[in-house]
Structure formats: structure tokens, C-alpha cells
Fold each of these.
Amino acid sequence: MTIDLSEVLCTKSHEYVIKKGDILTVGITDFAVEQLGDIVFVELPEIGTVLKQGEVFGTIESVKAASELYIPVSGKVVEVNEKVIESPELVNTDCFGDGWLIKVSDFSNKELAEMMNYDEYKDFLEKEE
Amino acid sequence: MEQFSKGQEGREEQEMIKRTPLYNEHLRLGAKMFEFAGWEMPLQYSSVKEEHFTVREKAGLFDVSHMGQVFITGSDALKYLQNLVPQDLSKLEEGKAVYTALTNDNGGIIDDLIIYRLPDNGCKFLLIINAARIENDLNRLLSQKGSYDVVIDNKSNELSMIALQGPLSSEIISDIGISDDNIPKRFRIKEITINGMDAFIARTGYTGEDGFEIIVKNEDAERLWQDLLNKGEKYGLKPVGYAARDTLRLEAALPLYGQDLTEETTPVEASLSWTIPKEKQESYAGKDIILAQFSNNMPKRKLVGFKMLDKSVPRHDYEVFTDNEKVGRVTSGGFSPCGNVGIGLAYIDTTKHLSEGAKINIMIRGKLHPAKIVKTPFYSVKKSNK
């Protein structure tokens, strides 16, 4: 699945969201995937969970280490990607597509407006190095 | 996203981070570097899984130059060392290696090490010790010297060590020009010359595979590394980092000092009873405690292997439960690429009589996950005939 990166918004902790109508798709960025390496386990919240911005919504484990996932904007979990729970390597192969993690509704537009677009995120990464 | 638990890493703050003579090679090969035991070492070059399978199926090259080499010589070398380790070195033939522990007076493990007996009238031994323990080991060695006629020669700063591990290792070793006569058999060592470089070559390792560990002078390390990589290319040889080194050694259930072994654990508790000959005559540090634990086979706790029964991954320091009661702690944990499952080593309270097949639970981020005690190693190859 190809993705239009201009639709991708990112956090400094390397999560992304893509807005489609009333629903946000949440995942981790290509940079995060590269840092983590081979992903072997994904733990996600239950449908219906209400999350506040910055809260931990799950865990992702690579061969090397476990990492916590932070929700970029407040909202309610309406779908979790059962496919990545079954096949965590999908996050490695297609983080912006089939490797998405959760879908969120009732999100805060104000918080969404504070996120970096993909170009700003790339600049941020460069400065970090 | 933030990392909150790490697999293999040096846990103590070090004043100055050291680099091996192969540092530039690691950068050239695109390694991601990290700190391990006070050294800046390669974490991975490509992908951990890929590097892991390279070693299991072909061969991998590791920089283990941070490890320590100490030579013990002198007419009392045997007598002196016999007092320091549980293994019976009088039975050790020249050119052979033995895995053992440097014990303290309580039977605790100061370090785990390989001792090679070198051909020199039986009076020369080479100790390969853990990087993070060099200072502790030397203190112990010096404090026990007394009036023994021995010379303790720490060559750790002058020597580098490269490990070649995997089923195709012996073919690569032949290909760089080492004659069959100069290739040591399993758990043996030879002092040879490789393309003009003085070297010790031993058939030992830390991966559960056949392989070699080669010790050369620091100034020769880069040339040997490149020679091996060049000659090994057609066999699929690749450099392998410390992330894969950890998954490989964990599958082989080889303990890591500082996690699975400490000054508070005895070799019996660490399930290293096979390294304790009962019939050894000489006394050694902690012998009474170790033999008492050994004969009633009932230390308070024991290191066991376990595997997860769901997709979760156990990590260092997670707690172990049965029937909602805490019964132990994970010392090493991770994902097994060969088993495609989370595996670990944990110290378990022996009064619970949990043996192979017993169901346990691992507390992972506030939730209990099912696991089962299993036989170790998690992975092993059929014994090489060579």
C-alpha cells in the first residue's frame, strides 16, 4: 500500500497519525521501525479505551528491546489491528500501511493541530542526530 | 514511543568509554554502536534476526577484543590456580580448555572464565575473562598470590580477540591458510602463525555453534578481521553485533556475567554443577558451601530455562509467579529467532519443586503471562565429528 506522506503527522516520540474523516489511524514512523529492528510482539489496548494525549496505549517489542507507545492525541479506540498482533513483522514491512496499530475516534482537533507534518518531523530528526 | 527495557547492556556507569582496535572497521561496515561493559561495541550491522541466522546457518564474525587475557606462569601455576576454581586443572591436558568460575570464599562467582593449559611443561595457563570483571579478577588473583612462584601477566590491553562462529567456520579457517594440523579440535587451543601474525586459535565460543576464537596483537587485529571477512565472503560470512550475540548465547543457555551470574550466586545455583568435579582433592574458595549444595542438590534457588506460552517477550528483572505467589526472577530474557518464541533464564525458589514442564507465569507490565520450564539449551547443534 502506498501512502501519501503529506497526510502523515508525527510526534517527537515517533508515533504518527493519519486522518481519514472522523477517524485517526495511529502507528509508529519509519524512523522508529529502523531504530527498533525486527519487531516480534505488539500489545494494544481494548476497543473502547479512552486515552488522554501522551498516555501509554501499548507496547512494541523488537528482538532487542521493549518500547512503550504514546497516544499522540486524546481520543477513543475504535479498532485495533489484529493482523499486527498476529504478525508483528507487518510493522517492519509497512508501518504506514498494513502495519498500523490502532484507530481512534472522538479525537481532539486542537491537539492534532500541534503535531508535526512529515517534513517537519524529518527536520526534527536531523537536528536530533 | 520510548524504550524502557534493554536486553544486553553494560549496567555500570564507566568513567571513560573504550574502543577496540576494530572500531573503525565497525564504522566502515555501518554498525550501530552502543556501550557494553565500558566499551563502545557494535550493536548490529544489519538486522538482529538476519545476523542471528547467519551464525546458525553459515558463519558470523564477532569483535570480542574487550575481553581480558591473563597469563599465569611459574612453577606453582597449577597449585595456585587449583585454589581459585572448582575445576580440577590437574586433569587438564596441555592444549585443552576448561570452563569454570573464579569463586569467592562463599562460593559466589567472581567471574566465569575459560582456562587454557598451554604447552610449556604444564606451567602456563591462559585465562579468558569478562571485560567488566578484569579489575575484580586481577584483584582476586593478586590477593591470593601469597608465596606461590607465579607470574600474573595481564595482556588484556595488548591483545585483541575475534570470534568466528557458525557451521562453516572451519572451512573459512582452512581458506585463510591455516593447515589442518594447526586447526584445533573442540575445546582445544593452538599457538600458530596466520599469514605472518602470531596468534592463539581456540575452538570455543559463545553462540552454541562450532567456531573459533582467535587472539592476536592489537596491531594485527584489523588485518585478521579483513582477511577473514574477505575469505569468508563466498561462504556468506558477515559481521555480527552484540544484539545477536545475546540472542545466540541465550538460545544456547550460556550465562551472562552480571545478569545470570554474580558474586551472590554459586555455580550450583547457576546450574553449572557440570563444572564441579566431586573428586577434586585440592581445596578451593567456597568448596565446602559448593559441595554441600551439590551433594544434597538443594540450593535455595536454581537457574532454570523457560519459554513463553504466548507471544510475549520476557526481559531481565521480570518477576516469576506460580499461583499468584512470587517464586523467582528472570535474569536473562529475550526473543528466540530459532524458536520464534520468548525464552529466558530465571532463578526459581527450589522449595516450590518446580521442574521441567512446570507451568509458571511471568509478570510483564502488570500482567501475568503463561510460561513453562523447559530443558536447556533451547537450541543445540549435533556434535561436530571433527
Amino acid sequence: MAAERLRGRYTLPAERLGFLDESPALEVEELGESLWTVSDGRDRAVFVVWEDRAIAWDTLSTPGRARAYRDAVGREIATVVYSNDHLERSGWASELAPDAERVAHEWCARVVELRGADGQLPATRTFSDTLEVGPARLIFPGLVSATGNVATHFPSQGVLYAPETVLPNARYSMLPDWHIRNFSPSLRSLLALDFDVFVPGRYGVMSRAEFERGIDFLDAVHDTAQRAFAESVAVWLFDAMDAYVKEHLTAEWGGLEGFDDHVGIMAFRIAHHYLTGGWSTEDSPAGRPQGA
Amino acid sequence: MSPDDAPVSECHRGIFTIAGQIPSQLQWRDMTYEPLRGKVWTVSEGINRSIFVEGDTGVVAFDTFGSPMAATAYQLAIQRVLPDKPVHTVVYTHDHLDHTGYAADFAPNARIIAHELTDAVVGARGADGQLAATETWSGETAWYEIDGVRFQLVYPGPTHGDGNSAAWFPDLKLLFMVDSIIPGVGYTFLPDWHLAPYIPTVQRLLELDWDLFVPGHFWLTDRGGFAENIRWYEAVAQIAQEAIAEGVDVESLPEVTRYAQERLGAEYGHLFRFNEYAGMNLLRYVFEYLHGGWGLEGNTAPRHEPIAVHDGS
């Protein structure tokens, strides 16, 4: 009997979901002793070999890519760590390693369970602040984006992996599911860790200096968007907001790839934070999800 | 600068953290107002809209508008219409500052009613100018008779913000709900929308007996306009998935806007502000499918059973 097609949240007819099964060649790069990063050209994850078995972070973005990731690891995956709840990050453990232990922050685990998406298996072990997993330390730095989004520190290799945080470019789009009030202090807290290499969840591997400059860029957009709204730039007029932030930010940040297409909608999103007051208790000083 | 460092200025600051004056908080807003049905009035500064109701001795007002000056203008508009009747009650529809952020300027001594989900955010936020509720309600419905004003509050499930609730006036066949249905494509990138439960949740409101709908922005509509707006959401949900399936650069607003114009323009291009916001609406829906919904609110299963109707007796 043919298995039913995995579809996450998609409601398109099965014949339109072929893209979920595409399985591109993955690029695998060694970052340090027993630590590797894997990428399909856009999304990126990491895995380690630990006591002859593998620990894999996240699942890549589709069932097909999860299977390619499994093949790239090439050995038994004993543990899968969910960096956050988003399906394109951790939605396909059923294809990557269905029998593995699954580790997640407790808030992430709660959303995964509530969602019940077909390929996203529930967590089997949760934590709240930090947790040692093999040679790595999982750290919840406070809210940045998504729910229960954690960073992973590999102290021996001097590597930090933290998806849905800083990118090597300006392709942040509408800062989807970001928590505007709290992201900056949460990100800056990670600078207390000892690392030289930063692995983002998308695009290329970065240096520590690039990570820090990425936070500076996000802060600059945040500050400029707030000032735009305070100065009565119409919060509903995209062209006005786009022009304002480009006038103020292009000189310093215009060289970032994707700046022209993305900075306007980033600022538009942030201005709406000040218009609405933030979204739920996540965007309040409490910094926690509704009901947590 | 942290919020604690921000200097006190002559107006309430919401959650702004920058120092000095906030010109947008001090910008005057002209209000227009008109009677609707019975003793219900609607008021708008051209973008936001609310209602207030004349009671026997005072006024039951919904929301506060979105800045200290707008709240003051709202108060003055009510005084102009009902000069001898103070606002003794404010009902918060939901937690966002652009609708309920400035009771301190609007009616600082009023009784304030809010759903418990709304008040939880208001309390956690601690915004300058947004007062906590003096009483909360919970669950899906609550019936109120205040100073001769009769209405049922309805929390149909997650739609937008926290605790976003409708006010139903069964005697007048009038339904008021903010930040859900509006005429056209007016809601930018659908900020703080909970898309997975959204459509079935707002559809439940069609089970109530009403023929006049007052939205939180722009102009009034009816059951046909309400249903038309739901069809827009259904179309965007479908086309967002197709954009992903076809390999559109779905992070890029310009690319997504081009796709929205191409796929939705023929049927929906006549809608109010389609050219401005169709791409943003689509961008938000793209992330819904890529991510699987945001947070607990965006992953709560919608309810489908009929809303309990209070007979008012």
C-alpha cells in the first residue's frame, strides 16, 4: 500500500506537491573535528559524529531534502535537535530519522505538539534554559524569532549554530515570526560565548565579526523604523517607509546583498510593532508565549 | 535605550523607547461620526473606526483609538454628540495600541471591560497610556446590560491579536468587530493574524443574526461584503501555496507582489488597496505554509460549533 504523501500544512492537491519530494545534491563542509554543515544552497543545518552515531540539528525544509540530509549524514542518527518549531526548520523528522530521540525547547515542543503536522514528530526530551547534547550545549538566549528558538554552541570547535537569527545578507523579508522587542538583547547575549565561526540557518557560514555586524544591521533597521513612525511617516504607506529607511541606511548598509528588496518590508514590520504595541506576551517585557 | 531610560514627556508614549517628543503621538485627528441604529454611533478619523453607544446616564464606548491625540479627539467627538453624558464604560476589543492604547487620555476613570486574553497582554506590556481592565470576561460569550445598553461580546477564537472579540447588538442586527473583516485588501501584511484558524473562526460570526457590520477600519459593510472578504483570504491561501510550489523567490516582496498581481489581479484587482497590499497579504500567507503557523495562537484548532446566543432576558 502506498504511503500517504506528507504535506505539512499544504492543502494543494497531491499532484501539485511534487516540490516537497525534490531531493537536490547537498553541499557538505567540515567545520571542525566531527562537526559538519550541510546546505541545499539556501537552508543550512549541522551534524556531529559522536560515539559512532550522529546527532543532527534540524531536518531541512521538505521531506525530500530531509531524506537527502539523512543520506549525507550516512550513519545512524541517534538524536535530532529542533532549533525551533517552524516546519521549514524542523518539520520532517519522519524522513530524517523517525526513531531518533528528538530534543527541543519546551515552548517549541508545545507548539509542535499542538500543530500535529504530519512529518514533524513530537519532541521526546525538552529543556528550558540550557542542555548538554553530545559535545554541544543548547542555549535558549531569550526570544528572537519562532517559538523556543535555541542556539547551539560547539565549544571545542569554536562554532555557534543559530537558525532564524542573523544572516550574512539583508534577506530578512518581513521578519516573519520575529519578536521585535526582545531580539536584540537575546542575540547580543550570544556574544558572551567563545566562538569564531557562526552558522546561520540560511546562506553562507559567517565569522564572529560578521555575526556581530549582522546584529548591528538589525538594530539599525529597528531604530530607524521606530524613528520613522515617531516622525509621522505613514505606517500604512510602504513607499514612504521604504524611502525613509533607504535614505537613512543605504550609506552604511546598502552593500548588503538583498538590501534594496528587503529593508523596506523589514522596517514596515518593525513600525507596526510600535503601532500595535507588539504581538502577544512574546513581545512584552515578560518575553514568554501566551499562557507560559 | 531601554524603556526605563526614556524620559517622561508631555504625552503618553505607548511603547516608544526613543527619547524626546513623539510627533506622531501629538498629531491631531479630525473625527467624523454618524448615527447607525438605535443609540449606536460610529466614529472614524478616516482609517480607524469604532462605535459608542448612548446609555441612560452616560456612554459605553468601544476602544480608544491609537494615539493620545486621537483618543482626545474621540472623547471630544462624543462630547459634541452627547454633551451631558460622560464615558463611564470602555470595552476593549483586543490588546493592540492602535485600538485600545490610550484609555489614560480617553476616559481614565472609566470601567474597562476586556477579555482575559486581552488583559493578560495589556498587563504584561505595561504600555504608557494603556490602562488595565477593571473587569475581565472569559470563554466565548458574555452578555452585558450596562446603563440600558444591551450587547453580547463574542470571542469566536484566534483571529488577530489576543482575545479579539466582536460586539453583537441583536436588537439592532448590528455586529462590530475590529481587525478581521474589512472591505478590500486593507490589512498590509496581516499583522498578528492567526491564519490557520482565521477563516473558519470568522465564518462562525455569520451564524449570528445581523445585517450591518462595522469593521475597525474604513467603511461599513453587510453580510455580502463580509463573505466577499473571506473569499479573498481563501484565494490568497491558495495562491501562496502555488507560489511556493512554482519556486517564486518567496522571501522577496517585489517578486511576491509581481506574482500576486499576475495571479490575483484579474479577479480581485478591483478591491480597495489591492495594488498596495495584495503582495504583502500573499507574503504573509507564504510564511504560514513554510513555517506551519506562528506560536500557540497560530496553531490552535478552530471551533466549528455554533456560537451560544444569549436571549437577553
Amino acid sequence: MFETKFSAKDVDVFYGTNHAIKKVSVEIPDKTVTAFIGPSGCGKSTFLRCLNRMNDTIAVCKVSGDIRLDGEDIYAGDVDPVQLRAKVGIVFQKPNPFPKSIYDNVAYGPRIHGLTASKAELDDVVEKSLRRAALWNESKDRLTAPGTSLSGGQQQRLCIARAIATSPEVLLMDEPCSALDPIATAQIEDLIAELRANFSVIIVTHSMQQAARVSQKTAFFHLGILVEHGDTTKIFTNPSDQRTQDYITGRFG
Amino acid sequence: MIENQPRAANSIHGSVVSNARLKRRHAAETRLKAYGILALTLAGLALVALLWSVFGKASLALSEHYVTLPVSVETGDSALLAKADFEAITKDSIAARFPEASSREDRKQRAELVSGGAVFALRDAVLAQPTLALAPFEHAFLASDTVDLYLKGESGALADQAKAGDLTVTVDAGEVEFVSSQSDFTAILALVRTDLVDQAKKLRDKAQLQDNGVVEYTRRAETETGEKKTKDSDEAAKRAGKRDALLAEALDLEQRAASPEGREKLTDEMPSLLIKLGETWIKVGEIGSAAGKGEIVGAIPHQSAYSGKDWQFMVNPTPEASRKITDKQTIWIETLRQSGDIESKFNWRFFTAGDSREPELAGIWGAAVGSFWTMLVTLLLAFPTGVLAAIYLEEFAPKNRMTDFIEVNINNLAAVPSIVFGLLGLAFCLGFLGIPRSAPLAGGIVLALMTLPTIIITSRTSVRAVPPSIRDAALGVGASKLQTSFHHVLPLAMPGILTGVIIGMARALGETAPLIMIGMVAFIVDIPRGITDSATVLPVQIYRWSDFPERAFEARTAAAICVLLVFLIAMNAVAVFLRNRFERRW
């Protein structure tokens, strides 16, 4: 198996007095798709957002424990979340392109991080990102059109292109297909499979089928606790915990 | 079809009870709609009435009149020209046209035909083209405000009266006795005499008051004794005497009003009667049914008999006492009008000149420029401060008691009466900073303080309305908080912010009270050239003009209101345009 990308140890998250994540410890390998599954409100999205410190923007949210990316503590005092987020990209549940052109949407990340030296280089990054997000063919003739003019599935792929344009090492996806139809979902899933070659992908999903289709590793969360974590095939065929068994067979959740 | 048949309970037509309820619900809806339409109609009518009255009055200020008179400067030497007494030259020009005015009062009235500012216009015209002075030339003098108002029909107009007889006149030392062969003046005499009845009624009211006194003192005297009794009896007798005199006077007036014979003296509170005999006019002072007496204005008539078509009888229904223009002035103006020496022009001066005490010279430009400088200062101070404060409070400030306290205070400041900001400006800008009085800089600072809460509140609302998903997206690709705010949140909130700013500025543009406190009500003739020059602003100019006694300022006030309205409507239109143009959907 690949080496460990993220390693979390005894992570606790509090929203005010609400204890949302309880003592979660997990190792996430590189160049692998890891699925977080679990019923609504179990803390899987919260945990995902801890991995690139998006929770910092919520004033009442307190994170404790130890989360390491390639062995470095991402909550250490000298880590700038801006730098971290360039390395750990995120795609949200609802497609949220900027109300700017398709080109500007993708180019925004490289621009603010100063990743490209020239316009030609930036064009190149935009094209590559759109190609990898399987949006190039549909959008190459209308790069100046607003990103919001695309269809829902295209918008989500644009958001993925925007996220991978900064060449992150990890891509976090928070239910990226929940607002999409089956065809768009299939396209995104193909895309995730391709992205695995270069990135470590962590996907939160409500669809057990999707988790089974795209992921190699699965983590099952319940009531803020990481119940079970392991190879996807094992979790879906032979879970060791009764709650996992109940959840994947549809007894609750 | 069977009516009144009970329907099934589950029919879509419903039961009797539910139908009655439905009917009431529909009736309530109809009533609400009717109230709404009624309210809108009333509001619309009120608006139309307001605009009608303002625009109607303002239209009077849009034209000005010029009187063309021959002028003779009688010097070609340009060195002497600059020192020439153009006031005397102007007076001489008018005097040459109407030499008949001899008394001091008449000469004064004659000089008042043209504006006080016409002297300077003549001087400028002559100095600009000194060759003019070599020979007599024609010059168009700006008419005075009273003449201008008369020409616009605001001081009553002369109306021709029907007459049938021939007129015979006898001149006797400036006075003239006239007799018509028919009873041409009966109708006007009756009109004059209704005035007598009014006067008699007033006298009778006064007599009634005296009578009350008589009754009261008589009653007191009955119960009293000694010295007091004598005093009160005397008082009663004195009042009875006054009462009787008043009653006799009233009776006399009533008898005069009733009798067809005799003449009546005309006062300046009665309509003015004028008779025109070719070039000569008679201002009637005494009138009977077929004859009268008057004063000659113009040349002495050289004939004594005028046939029906050679004389005109005119009435100005507005009494002389209720207008500023005198009968003599109207005669001179009518003479000038007949000879084609009066022309009307579009009043550009109103839009290009500064303030003046002479209504015909006053313009709005000084106040408009003052408003511009003031608004500039306000915008430069309030816009960046307000928007940055809003961004800080919404995006960066920790949510704690301090920010809550600040928010409450901003909301309270928005409700503070504007005059309080004026007092602050007086103490801070003038007292502490030492900014000169009446300066747009001080006015701008005060209005910026006044507008700031509005701008902060609307900007915060717009910033808050930007969906959080946009912030997440920006933060997700690694933008810093500052980049998120300025690259994404601010551009999206901008249409709303601009709308708020423009509406706040429009309010500031219409503000008077705080500027009065910092001395921007002063009389300022010069157009301000910067933010530290003395200036006034549009609403203050309107306020000042509305307070001036000259009637011609009424039209100018209305015209200034129109100018302000145009600015306000334009600003609101820009706000609407920006909102529609830049509104984005996400």
C-alpha cells in the first residue's frame, strides 16, 4: 500500500458545547480514494473540513488533537492555513463557481499563489486543469463565459478544475455529487478515479454504492465516533462492527 | 339544473357554510385591493398636484424680459469711458423715453423699470466694444423683477372694457376732466361701490363693539354710587357718541352705494382704471357713471374730442396696493410693448449666475457648485470609510460585546436628527479644526458624519447577502481573508453598497439643517472655486429664497426646487441602474 498522507490522532471538535467529533484517529494513505460514510450529522463533513482548516472560519469551532500532513502538524502555530489550503484542495456539496468567467475561475488559485510566471503558463495550467476535470471539450470555446452559466454538473466539474489548478496533494470532496443527476455523477466518479493517480482523494458521501464504486478505503462515522476504518471491500462485505453492518445493510441512516 | 339541492359533502362546490366563509374571504380580498388602489390614487394625485404647483411656478423663472432703449454715452475716449457714470447714462436713457415724469416719486418709479444690474451690463457691453460709444445706440436693458412679473401677468393684466360713447376731455393743469356721451362707466362704478358696502359693513362692526361698551358701562353705573358711577356714566356716553358717528358714516357710505348719481374717488385698494387716448394715458382718480377726473401720464392731449374708436378704457382688476408695479409703470411698459421695445428671452442667467438680492439677477449656479464641492467631500470621506467599516464589521471583527455595542450605536446614529450633526460640526470643524465658516469642507465633513451610519448599515446588509458558499470557495483555493473580501465579497456586494451610498448621498444633498449650524446660510454671490471657499448649497438656497420678500423669488424658489429634484431623481436613477446592471445571480 502507499505511504500515509494524513494521520489524525485523538481529534476532538467542539461547536460551542456540542462535542461533534470524539477522539477520532485515522490514517489516510496517499494516491488512494478514501470514502467517509455515515448517517447525517455523524461528523464526517466536520472532520473533512478539519483537514484543511476550513473550520477556522467558524468562530465557535474548537479543534484539538493532532492532525499531520506528511508528518507535519497542520494546526501548529507556524502553519498558515492559506498555504495549507493550496496543498489540500476542497470541493463542496453545492457547485459554487465564482460569478466570473470560466477562465478566471480556474486561474484564480494559481494567480493568488503566484504559481505561474507568464500568461502562457497560466493558460496552460487552466487548460490542463479543465482537461483533467473533463470540462475542456465543453468549455474551450467559451472560456470567457461566466462560470455560473454552466449546467449543474459542469459547474461542479469547474469547481474540481479550480481545486486542482493549484496542484494540491490532497483533494477533499464534500458530497460532490449530491446535487447532480446520475450522468453527471458518473462523469465525476470517472474523474475521481483518474485523479487518484496524482492525488490523495477523500470523499464524503451518503451513497454507499458510490463509496463502494470509487473508494479503496472507507471510514464509517457514527455520532462523532469513527466506528470502523479499513479497505472498502472489507467494510462492505465483512464489517467487524455491528453498527457498520446495520448501516450498510440499510437498517438505519 | 336544480338549485338549492344539497350537494355531497365532498363536492368541489363545498357546503353552504363553507361557501359563505369563502364569500367573506373573497370580500375581504376585494376590500383590501380597493383600499390599495384608493391609497395609490390619492398618493398619485398628491404627487401630481405637488409637481403641477412647483413646475407651474418654476416656469415663470425660465424667461426674462429686456427693455430696448436708445443710449448715448457721448464719449469715444476709452480712458474716460471706464470712469463714465453709467448709472446716470442709464437713467438718462429712460428719462429720454419718458420725459413726462417730473416729481421725485415719478422719477424713482421710472428708474425702477430696469434692473439695478442693467447698469453693469451696459458698462460691460460698452467697454467690450468702445466704438459703440461714439454714437447713440440701442441697448437692451434687463427689466426689473416687478416689470418682469407684470409682463408675465403676475401683477394683474390690463383688460379692455366695452364702451359706446365719444369722449370729451378738458385739461386743467395736469388734471383732466373727461365726459363720455354714453353711460360707459356705470358697470365699473357699481363695482367700485360694492367696495363702499364692504367698508360700511366694517364700520357697523366697529359700531357694534362700541355699543357693547355702552351696554356694559350702563349696567355698571346702575349698581354703583358716587364717583365711580359718574365715571362709568361718562364712559357710556362717550362710547355712545363714537357709536353714533360710526353708524352715520356707514349710513352715508350705504346711501352713496345705492344712489346712481355722483362720483366716487378711487383708492389704491380698488381696481385701477386707465383711459388711453392715442399716446396719452389718463390714470382715473374719480369716476361717475358717464364722467370722471384723472391724471395725465404722457404728453398733454392735443385734441379735446375723441370718437369711440380713438379711445380705450382699461381696467386692471388687481388693486395697486396689492402689487408692486404702479399704474404709471404699467402705462410706460404698455407703451414700450406697443412700440416693440420689449423682448422675452430664455433665462440662462438663472443657471449660470450666483446669488443676488435682486431676483432678476439671482441664479442657482453658485449653490449648485457649492453642493458639488460639499458632496465631493462627503463622498470621499463617507464612501471608503463606510464600506471599509462594513467589511471589517462583517468579515473580520470578532463577534463579541464590543462589536454588538458598536452595531447598536451605529444604528442609533442613523436615527439622530441631522441638526445634532450640525452642532457637532460647529464644535468640531469650526471650533476645533478651525475650518472657515460656510466652507464646503466643513459642510462635507458634517454630511459625511450624517451619512456614514446609513452607508455602513446598507453596506453591511449587502455584504451579508453575499452567499457564504462564495467565501468557502475562495478560502478553499487558498485565498486569504483579505483576498476573499476584496476579490469576491466586495464586488458582489458593490451594487447594493452603491445603491445605499447614492441614496445616502441623495439624502445629504437635500439636507439643510446641519449646514445652517455651520454658517452655510450666508449670502454668497461668488461661485465657490474650492472646498475652502465660502459657499451655500441647493437646499439652503431654496430655504433662503423662500424667505425673501420679493415676489419674483417665489418663482425662483420653485425653479431651484426643480433643479434639486432633477439632481435627486438623476441620482436615484443611477442607483436603480447600477442595481439592475450589476446585480448577479448565483
